[in-house]
Amino acid sequence: MAEVTYLEALRAGLWEEMERDERVFILGEDVGRYGGAFKVTEGFFDRFGETRVIDTPIAEAAIVGAAAGAAHMGLRPVAEMQFIDFISCAYDMLTNYVATARYRAGLATPVVVRGPCGGYVRGGPFHSQNVEAAFFHTPGLKIVYPATARDAKGLIKSAIRDDDPVLYLEHKWLYRRIKEDLPETEVLTPIGEARLAREGRDLSIVTYGATVWKALEAAEQLASADGLSVEVLDLRTLVPMDDAAIMRTVRKTNKVLIVHEDTRTGGVAGEIAARINEQAFEWLDGPIMRVTAHDVPLPYAPTLEDFVLPQTDDIVKAGRWLARY
Amino acid sequence: MTPRTAAAAPLSAASPAVPPIPADLSRDDLLELYRYLRLTRTLEERLVALYRQSKVIGGLFRSLGQEGESVASAYALERGRHGDLLSPLIRNLGSMLVMGARPVEILRQYMAKADSPSHGRELNVHFGDLELGYLGQISHLGDMIPVMAGIALSFKLRREPRVALVYIGDGGMSTGTCHEGLNFAAVQRVPLVVIGEYNYWAYSTPPERQFAPQRLADRVQGYGIPAVTVDGNDVLVVYEATKRAVERARAGEGVHFVEVVTYRRKGHAEHDDQHYVPAEELERWARDNDPIDRYAAQLVKQGWAQPRQLADLDAAAKAEIDAATDACVNEPLPEPASALPGVYVDPPAAPRHWYRSL
């Protein structure tokens, strides 16, 4: 066992897959000698060389498109977006080309596109985004979003081994904040399986990414201040979504609060609420409620960013309200 | 542009003949250029101090070594209401000051103050003033090329004798939007001047990992855009080349590209220690090719200015930045709920979430 950060766990997962499978290669901006803007690929250039750790021009459409072409030919590219905010430059490639390739042409496109997401870091509107909703709607892309170091490692390995394109969303606020003991043995997190992060009886919080940790803090506060038993479900994978795990917790606690850091309108929470409505309506003892970012671009000033994003205190208040409903 | 003095007066009766000033510049213009160069550097040095005191909230981006091309290119534009319009990148602070951005605005932006031009919503130099003639960038490189092509298109459609100018770096020129924008502008023959900044580093990536030809100018000629490459650290050379491009664009000759060869002497941002840059290369550019040092030496050597005048401008720049810092450093951050208005005209504000009223 060794204690590693979320970022180190991701790096270890990538490294192990590069060692295990020579078809795996990395491409992105400043990923080579520099080791990536957040140092995720530090040391890879020296170990694997410039043919497997490729510094690219600033050209996200070309990065993703080239990854797709290489993947058709049997390679396993892992494309880094320096910040996930720049994946919008590859939106056409991902949604029109990559996502449709298997369905329309029977083409295997086992690419992984990964990059740092999320706020709480004073990054302003273009270095803080969450982009899952923009791709969640497109059939053909899988989306994973680890919250723990274990899943940071386990999901990157599963994503690389998956035969379909996977967006691997990693949260930069968790990179060095989360530490965990990981076993020396293989860590693989299955794509499509949620994780029960905390067991409870009175209320379920369904969430993913950085807000898993805020939900756990809130659950702790609700336990000590209100005597409430709060269950926290970490989705880990957004597409395909683990409906069974969601319905299990709904049937257990009968009250659901959905929490995500992304903005509200058109966000993933709306889809989760619709599925609960369709599959477990009669088990509900209260309305399905959401805690999300406000519907504005993410501002820079700490006072503004803190106001816009969901905070632990918001989850506590919303959870308390829902528990009393 | 400031009113021009009628003729360059000799320094003294005994001095030898003073060489003519290049382009159409007066002695006052030369000193004003120097003032903007010094103001840019002094302001950035102050920002470094504030960054180290954790008063700058996010990252800090320097233009050390590139101030010359930013200031000189912007100086070739017609400034003031209904004048020309530029869009800067992260290392074009000097161009914004030339167009009329005030140091206190830059300081407030970096410190996310309530009264900053973006009211704490955007960071660093990401703001604009269309009246004064500059449009703020976003982080996605290349996006401002088509936008500025559209601004230039509006000048053309309205038959206004105005010119748009946009900056793009050796890294930013790898983006698709840059190339779509260049081609669009060339086909439409809009009055657009593009300053291509070859500064050797895009974050940690050198030019040979961005593009195959030697020069940025080589790349745009394929779009039918006339292009020149100049010494980006020679202030007057950049001014002259930009001025020529601006005049041709204004005369209906379409898009022009000026490649300025310069050097990024600091890391991508203040956190970046530049370990990937050879130390001797940095030292060489700092010692032999600093644009402000070169310009000051040229002014004195040619007899266009006296050292005393430059020292006075240095002191004035420091005093201006001191006053600007004092004016804003203790100002408040924005009120939290001021995050909600302004996404649309109507509705005027995004709703506050339900649990915030519990």
Observed structural traits:
heterodimer, A: alpha/beta, Rossmann fold, 2 domains, five-stranded mixed sheet, 14 strands, globular, B: 358 residues, alpha/beta, five-stranded parallel sheet, 11 helices
Q: Judging from the principal axes of the Cα atoms, what is the shape of chain B?
A: globular
CATH superfamily of the largest domain in chain A: Thiamin diphosphate (ThDP)-binding fold, Pyr/PP domains
The string of secondary-structure elements of chain B, in order, is HHEHHHEHEHEHEHHH
Sequence of secondary-structure elements of chain A: EHEHEHEHHEHEHEEEEHEEHEHEHH
Question: How big a fraction of the residues of chain B is strand?
Answer: 5-15%
Query: What name does CATH use for the topology of chain B?
Result: Rossmann fold
Helix-residue proportion of chain A: 25-40%
Number of helices of chain B: 11
Radius of gyration of chain B: 21 Å
Form type of chain A: globular
The CATH topology label of the largest domain in chain A is Rossmann fold
Distance between the termini of chain B: 57 Å
Whole-number mean pLDDT of chain B: 95
Counting H and I runs of at least 4 residues, what is the number of helices of chain A?
A: 12
Overview of this structure, please?
The complex is a heterodimer of chains A (about 325) and B (about 350). Chain A folds into 2 domains: about 1-180, 3-Layer(aba) Sandwich (Rossmann fold), CATH 3.40.50; about 195-325, Rossmann fold (3-Layer(aba) Sandwich), CATH 3.40.50.920. Chain A is built from 12 helices and 14 strands. Chain A has helices at about 5-20, 45-50, 60-70, 90-100, 100-105, 130-135, 150-160, 210-225, 245-255, 270-280, 300-310, 310-325, and strands at about 1-5, 25-30, 55, 75-80, 110-115, 140-145, 165-170, 180, 195-200, 205, 230-235, 235-240, 255-265, 290-295. Chain A has a 7-stranded mixed β-sheet with strand order 3-2-4-5-7-6-12, with helices on both faces. A 5-stranded mixed β-sheet of chain A has the order 9-11-10-13-14, sandwiched between helices. A two-stranded antiparallel ribbon of chain A has the order 1-8. In chain A, α9 (about 245-255) packs across α10. The mean pLDDT of chain A is about 100. By secondary structure, chain B is an alpha/beta fold. Chain B has one domain (about 25-355): 3-Layer(aba) Sandwich (Rossmann fold). In chain B, β4, α8 and β5 form a beta-alpha-beta unit. The longest helix of chain B is centred in the first third of the chain and has 26 residues, at about 25-50. Chain B is globular. The model of chain B is unreliable at about 1-15 (pLDDT under 50). Chains A and B meet through β14, α11 and α12 of A and loops of B.
